[in-house]
Amino acid sequence: MNFSVLDQMKADGRLPKHVAVIMDGNGRWAKKRAWRRIRGHEKGVDTVRTVVETSREVGIAYLTLYAFSTENWQRPEAEVQALMALLTRFLKSEAANLNKNEIRLSAIGQIDRLPPEVQSVLADAMAQTAKHQKMTLNLALSYGARDELTRAIRKAAQKVADGELTAGDISEEIISQHLDTVGMPDPDLMIRTSGEMRISNFLLWQIAYAELFITPTLWPDFSREEYLEILENYGNRERRFGKTSR
Fold first, then answer.
1. Three-class DSSP category at 51
2. N or C: the chain end with fewer CB closer than 10 Å?
């Protein structure tokens, strides 16, 4: 990959400001090797590190990773516990690297549903990196878009009940202000690995005009080179937002 291409894309405003990723395929990657599913998730952490560092290097301002969904709580208890332990280790080990690269950590979703130790480690990592402005790494944890929208509407409805808003005040902007991603730009690009052709309850409101890229690559095999190729592909797409090219 010639970085001058990406540099020119950034100068032209063709580099996405916000990339969202559905990191799919860890379990299948492990199954292909007759390993336990958690081995796939462990290998997937290496890919997370690669994508975070590459995003920072090329100038992506926001990176949202779908790390654990509300539906994932329905997985076998042993797998959920292993995923929570892996998340804890990741947060503890990566805080120094995030600080080194001036990356702020944030999280969206039902954070209060996470185990207390995970909540504590997450809060500490977020506090340690809160001052950074070069890039934001946003983890979707115990996250589901329908749940997020339900919570947002409840908050807005409560303000109507309290007299802070009227029903006529409710607008797209008001709804956006009550979402977990308030303060962040909507994703420009959404990537899904493993070839599945679905959105899986991920940022349904925010990706209304995102460019979609589905790759058959399983997440543990997703490389820096493929990521850079997708970014270049994005830069060559024409984004019309419902308008004509004229």
1. helix
2. C
